[in-house]
């Protein structure tokens, strides 16, 4: 029997950075996807609040709640018992007070069985990050394009296009590192600025739309496999499969076969024995429609 894989640790992640060994992270929101991710050797599973968009059908991540994150995180943990699972803290759940923040984090860890939490924001959330780290909870930062602030940013725009922006992103990353974050996600950041930040941090950076020089990469599961009824390609995503098309075709074939009574076929049905058939129908044949 195969030995269960050793989950990643935050110490090992730092070593991976030093050895320039890339970290592979993907999102997952349910049991079967988490199982497949673990089997494929993914280093970190992110239960992202992107589930608001890709699973729950909202047009942003803002409506996602702690209850949603706990529910999906539990399912992911059941599918990936030996993987480092990071679960997002949703919109406005780590801003009002340290007590409220720690209470939400407690639920994600205790009820959602996550290994760590992720929070969007820079220097302004450093005190919350520090409080969580002091309470023994690993925290992953997230700067650049932060979808929870989409209305303040004014859309899904590339970050790090000016020197001021680059400096602000670096200051934010350093503040998160100083607060004890074990890594930082850089989302939609220009290649050069992401590389510059990655070089200056001791902790790993994990990029999405932030070029190849980050210490790791993360993609949303639904993007990797084109799992959407109306998939719109994104420049920074590489799709490795097209399960949206496969599922749509499978559904169409199923509907057609049901309508034509081609499904279920003989091999899918359970036959009663002759005695029962005789009692039910006498010597007559079972009527087929
Ligand atoms: O919620 C999410 O999936 C994320 C990734 C895009 C990093 O935060």
Helix content: 40-55%
Rg, please?
24 Å
Largest sheet: 8 strands, parallel, barrel
Rounded mean pLDDT is: 95
Give helix and strand order, one letter per element, not per position. Answer: HEHEHHEHEHEHHEHEEHHH
Could you give the order of strands across the largest sheet? 1-2-3-4-5-6-7-8
- Secondary-structure-based class equals alpha/beta
Strand tally, please? 8
What is the percentage of strand-forming residues? 5-15%
Shape: elongated
Which regions have little confidence, pLDDT < 50, spanning 5+ residues? none
Ligands in the model, by name, code or SMILES, are:
3-methyl-2-oxobutanoic acid
Describe the structure.
41% of the residues lie in helices and 13% in strands. It has 289 residues and is an alpha/beta fold. The chain is built from 12 helices and 8 strands. 3-methyl-2-oxobutanoic acid binds at residues 27, 46, 48-50, 88, 142, 185, 187, 208, 218, 220. 3-methyl-2-oxobutanoic acid binds next to β6.
Short description:
By secondary structure, the protein is of the alpha/beta class. It has helices at 10-18, 31-39, 51-54, 66-79, 98-110, 126-134, 150-153, 163-179, 191-200, 221-224, 243-259, 274-281; strands spanning 23-27, 44-47, 84-88, 116-120, 139-144, 183-187, 205-208, 216-219. 3-methyl-2-oxobutanoic acid (KIV) binds next to β6.
């Amino acid at each position: 029997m195969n030995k269960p894989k050793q989950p990643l640790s935050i110490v090992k992640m730092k070593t991976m950075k030093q050895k320039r060994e890339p970290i592979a992270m993907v999102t997952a929101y349910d049991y079967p996807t988490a199982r497949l991710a673990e089997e494929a050797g993914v280093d970190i599973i992110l239960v992202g609040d992107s589930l608001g968009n890709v699973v729950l059908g909202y047009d942003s991540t803002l409506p996602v709640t702690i209850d949603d994150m706990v529910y999906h995180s539990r399912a992911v943990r059941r599918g990936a018992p030996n993987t480092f699972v990071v679960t997002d803290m949703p919109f406005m759940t780590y801003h009002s007070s340290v007590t409220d923040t720690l209470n939400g984090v407690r639920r994600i860890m205790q009820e959602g069985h996550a290994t760590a939490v992720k929070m969007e924001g820079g220097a302004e959330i450093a005190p919350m990050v520090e409080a969580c780290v002091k309470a023994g909870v690993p925290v992953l930062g997230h700067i650049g394009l932060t979808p929870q602030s989409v209305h303040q940013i004014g859309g899904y725009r590339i970050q790090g296009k000016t020197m001021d922006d680059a400096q602000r992103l670096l200051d934010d990353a350093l503040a998160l590192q100083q607060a004890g974050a074990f890594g930082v996600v850089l989302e939609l950041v220009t290649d050069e600025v992401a590389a510059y930040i990655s070089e200056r941090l001791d902790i790993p950076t994990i990029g999405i739309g932030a070029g190849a020089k980050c210490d790791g990469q993360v993609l949303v599961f639904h993007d990797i496999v084109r799992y959407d009824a109306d998939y719109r390609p994104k420049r920074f995503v590489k799709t490795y499969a097209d399960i949206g098309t496969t599922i749509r075709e499978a559904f169409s074939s199923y509907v057609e076969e049901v309508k034509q009574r081609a499904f279920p076929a003989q091999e899918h049905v359970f036959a009663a024995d002759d005695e029962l058939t005789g009692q039910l129908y006498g010597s007559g044949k079972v009527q087929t429609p």
